[in-house]
UniProtKB/TrEMBL annotation:
Organism phylogeny: Bacteria, Bacillati, Bacillota, Bacilli, Lactobacillales
Residues at which Zn(2+) binds: 279, 284, 286, 292
Classification via NCBIfam families: ribosome small subunit-dependent GTPase A
Compartment(s) where it occurs, according to its Swiss-Prot or TrEMBL record: Cytoplasm
Protein's name according to its UniProt entry: Small ribosomal subunit biogenesis GTPase RsgA
Domain of life: Bacteria
Amino acid sequence: MEDRILKLNEYSALNQPAASGLTLARVSATSHQQYTVITTAGSFAAVVAGRFANLALGPEDFPTVGDWVQVRLPQTPTDVAVIERLNPRQTVFLRKAAGRAAQAQLVAANIDWLLVCMALDANYNVARLERYLAIAAASGAQAAVVLTKKDRASDLTAQLTAVQAVAAAAPVFVCDATKRDGIAALQQWLTPQATYALIGSSGVGKSTLINLLLGTQTIATQAVRAQDAHGRHTTTARQFLRLPNGSMVIDTPGMRELGLIQADVAQTFDDIQTLAQQCRFRDCTHTKEPGCAVQAAIAAGALPAARLASYQQLQQEQAQNQALRGKARENAKIKRMFGSKKQMHAMIKAAKHRRR
């Protein structure tokens, strides 16, 4: 394992230096607010300081895999380190947590490249890929598409054409785990010292792909259901690994759903954005307005109607979730400062009364 652990002294110069008494570390694994951090002194189990937890308004205020943190090291290596500070993030990938509440769930931070994985079997879904790319675009990291299970493709040429159409400038790699050189192109493309995070649905083969990149069976894998290619959550906690070529890779749990909170829909659908500039009306909704360039492109066969539907759905979903998230964070702030809205109003009323 030591040959895959990040050598912190190669990267610490790029980060905010640690305060007096603290040590710079990078989070290598998380599970239920239990952390593993890597420092120049080795690897330690860690928890966040009480003050750190008290100031947090939501899950995104806590560390995640890939974060640079400042820790207070224990006197003995078997004891727990305490995370005192979180360094500013360069990039962060987050999604809406499962359920009705618009609460954010951190996936990974300080990533150079997000590798969006999609299988070419029954898991293949271009609309889902558009969703992943929209969130990836907002993360600050660059995105690449990794198509797995080439041996199970129903129509590789058509599938690849459709993926390249929505991927735009993002690199696209096709992998086949059944062949010795099935991931050669991806291996050659990975850059030493860069950080990559693999994201995608359960069952797309992320763990298998990482094992091939590592050259060992480090991560457990499971079979998927034959009828729909849905997989089990083989990876249940995020983890940070160093590849033989010096690249860092983050394995993330498979996602059954990917709710939008922070997404760049405009960048992902820049073809629609460009067409919209030619519409007769600036506030065109691209539905029934006369002179709509987007609808004209659909009628001419230049733009799939399904792509416009996906664009409109993601725009609406993002707006709704961002509003709910903002309200949730404001309520959390009020609760931390006053205990409840009722107590806040009582304190405001009392302050007004004293000023009379």
